[in-house]
C-alpha cells in the first residue's frame, strides 16, 4: 500500500484546523512527534521506525498527541482520573485540578464513591446534598473551559453501583436534569454481580435500569473494577 495513503485531502484539511502550526504539513508534525519520542525514550532509530509506521497507517494518534506532544502548548495525555475526598476543601481543590487539566488539553474524570450520600449528617452543619449534587461543579467546567480550537473540555464522573445515590446518578442526562454534559459511569465489583445473578431482586432492578439507560443514551459507562484490577500490569499490583 502506498505510503501516507490515509493522508487524503479531507484528512489534511481536518488536521490543519487546529492540530498543525501555520505552514506545517502533517508529515512535518509527525516527524516532530517521532523525534521527541526518540529523545525521551533514548532509543536510537525509534524516530524513523515510528515515522514509517505512521506512513503505513499502523498507528493512530490521539488528539492531545497531535496537538501538544513535542511542543510547549499543553498536555499530550488524553485522559486523567481524579479522586474526590469527602470534604469541601478537597472537592474544590479537585475542581481546580480538573479545570487546569482541561485547560491544557486533558480529558478528565473523577471518582465520587467516597462522598457521603444525600441526606447524610455533616458535623455541626446539617446534611449533605449528596455526591450527584457536587457533580454540577464539574458540569460548569465542561461548559466554560475550552482547549484552544481542538476540542471542548470533558469530564466523566464515576460512582460505585452500591452507592446510596446511584438512582439519582443514573438520571444524569435525562430530560430536565441539571446535569447534561457529563459522560458518567458506574463501577461494579464481582460480589455485587454475583449477588445480582443469584437473584437479588433489588440488584436486578437496578441492573435493568442501567441497561435501559445505556440503550436510551449510551451511558452510563460500566467498569468491572475487579476484572480490571486482576488484569492490570504488575507494577500497579505491587
Shape: elongated
Instruction: Give me the secondary-structure category.
Output: alpha/beta
Averaged pLDDT: 94
| Strand proportion | 5-15%
- Tell me about the biggest sheet? 5 strands, parallel
Strand order of the largest sheet: 1-2-5-6-7
Task: Note the gap between the termini.
Answer: 44 Å
Q: How many extended strands?
A: 7
SSE pattern, N- to C-terminal: HHHHEHEHEEEHEHHEHH
CA-based gyration radius:
22 Å
Describe the structure.
Belongs to the ribonucleoside diphosphate reductase large chain family. Keywords: Cobalamin, Cobalt, Deoxyribonucleotide synthesis, Oxidoreductase. It is an enzyme of class 1 (oxidoreductase). With 238 residues, the protein is an alpha/beta fold. The chain folds into two domains: 9-61, no CATH class; 79-237, no CATH class. 47% of the residues lie in helices and 12% in strands. The protein has helices at 9-16, 26-41, 46-55, 63-68, 88-103, 131-144, 166-170, 190-198, 201-217, 225-230, 234-237; strands at 79-83, 107-111, 146-147, 151-152, 155-160, 185-188, 221-224. The strands form two sheets. The protein has a five-stranded parallel β-sheet with strand order 1-2-5-6-7. A two-stranded antiparallel sheet has the order 3-4. A hairpin with a 3-residue loop joins strand 3 and strand 4 (151-152). It starts with 8 loop residues before the first helix and ends with a helix. The mean pLDDT is 94.
Short précis:
One of its GO terms (molecular function) is cobalamin binding. This protein has helices spanning 9-16, 26-41, 46-55, 63-68, 88-103, 131-144, 166-170, 190-198, 201-217, 225-230, 234-237; strands spanning 79-83, 107-111, 146-147, 151-152, 155-160, 185-188, 221-224. With 238 residues, it is α/β, with parallel strands linked by helices.
